[in-house]
Write a structure and sequence with these properties.
By secondary structure, the chain is an alpha/beta fold. Helix content is 39%, strand content 16%. It has eleven helices and 13 strands. Bound molecules: nicotinamide-adenine-dinucleotide.
């Protein structure tokens, strides 16, 4: 099978590419970024890296045409981007998705779209089912532009489904693992990672009681592939995540324990507005109902937080010592 992964040079895309190569497939990863996260795949003759933007429909079309299956993962991701450059977030995430959908539809290709738990916004319900409401803040609060961009893209997916496109949507809940962002930037695990490796205190934003469901990337990739390959997945949205809830404080404590440090003495608390400014609104709990993932995709999360964090910490520790280009610098920021 021939597979196109937009955003294939990113964190999840790189793991998805690896998994499809292991299946014996041929993979094209299309991305605007450098190929650092897939450099271990570049010698594989069935792997091709294409430096192009999903906003460039002409460049994109050549690769959609040759694919049997398209995963659309390219997106502008990261809290810093939502508050600093909402134009780019909206543009790439909505118009880029529209380009991919149009081309997949035109050439009769199957497609899976990478969406996010952020689409549920701050709906206080726990857990969230796929057809639960979206509860969002004002459009004048930039923080909501990412959620809105992904939800608009999902609406486009369903519109194209009506026109006959075989499309499914996966909504990720805090995926982590090796090759997540660079240390010190991006998501909470990589922020903690930098502090952990330098033996500094881990910075807790707020009181640390806010919870997330951290999902190891291998579990997320199995669900994503099932969404791309199983006929019964077409026309569905799936929460893809682990439903075990972890507070940010517990996450920090677990990471410290794995690194062999005494948790109590190595935590520092800061106010949220000092980090993200007064216009950021955090979400207290975010828990997926994963019934559909288990029953239709037949995938269950298998990796415990401790196991996944240990693999992630080991990877970051090794890479930052031996190949720091992948783990350090201020290249990108995520959320
Ligand atoms: N990791 C998570 O926890 C998580 C959670 C929710 C949703 N998602 C979604 O999953 C997808 C993959 O996320 P990720 O965590 O791997 O992030 P990532 O930033 O590592 O991957 C996204 C990739 O898209 C690329 N990209 C950005 N603009 C592009 C453009 N115009 N054309 C082509 N490529 C472009 C980036 O260079 C990057 O490599 C994204 O769509 C994201 O919104 C991820």
């Amino acid at each position: 099978m021939k597979v196109l992964i937009t955003g294939g040079g990113g964190f999840i895309g790189s793991h998805l590419a690896e998994a499809h190569l292991e299946r014996g497939d041929e993979v094209w990863a299309l991305d605007t970024a450098m190929n650092l996260k897939v450099r271990h795949l570049l010698t594989n003759p069935r792997f091709h890296y294409v430096k192009a933007s999903v906003l460039d429909a002409e460049a994109l079309e050549a690769f959609v045409i040759r694919a049997d299956l398209v995963y659309h993962h390219a997106a502008v991701v990261g809290v810093e981007h939502y508050v600093d450059d909402p134009f780019n977030v909206l543009n790439v995430n909505i118009l880029g998705t529209l380009n991919v959908l149009r081309l997949a539809h035109r050439h009769g290709k199957r497609m899976t779209f990478a969406s996010t738990s952020e689409v549920y916004g701050r709906n206080p319900k726990v857990p969230w089912k796929e057809d639960d409401d979206r509860v969002l803040g004002a459009t004048t609060t930039d923080r909501w532009c990412y959620s809105t961009s992904k939800a608009a893209a999902e609406h486009y997916c369903w519109a194209f489904r009506r026109m006959g496109l075989d499309v499914s949507v996966v909504r990720y809940f805090n995926i982590y693992g090796p090759r997540l962002d660079k240390i010190d930037v991006g998501r909470v695990i990589t922020i903690f990672m930098g502090q952990l490796l330098r033996e500094e205190p881990l910075t807790i934003i707020g009181d640390g009681s806010q919870t997330r469901c951290f999902t190891f990337v291998e579990d997320a990739v199995r669900a994503t592939m099932a969404a791309g390959l199983k006929p019964e997945a077409v026309g569905h949205a799936f929460n893809v995540g682990d439903d075990r809830e972890t507070s940010i404080l517990d996450l920090a404590t677990t990471m410290l324990k794995i690194a062999g440090r005494e948790p109590g003495a190595h935590l520092k608390y800061v106010k949220q507005e000092e980090v993200y400014g007064p216009r950021y609104e955090d979400i207290q709990r975010r828990v997926p109902d994963i019934t559909k993932m288990k029953t239709i995709l037949k995938v269950r999360p298998q990796t415990s937080l401790e196991e996944g964090l240990r693999a992630t910490i080991d990877w970051f520790r090794y890479e930052s010592e031996h190949r720091p280009s992948l783990t350090t610098s201020s290249m990108e920021a995520k959320g």
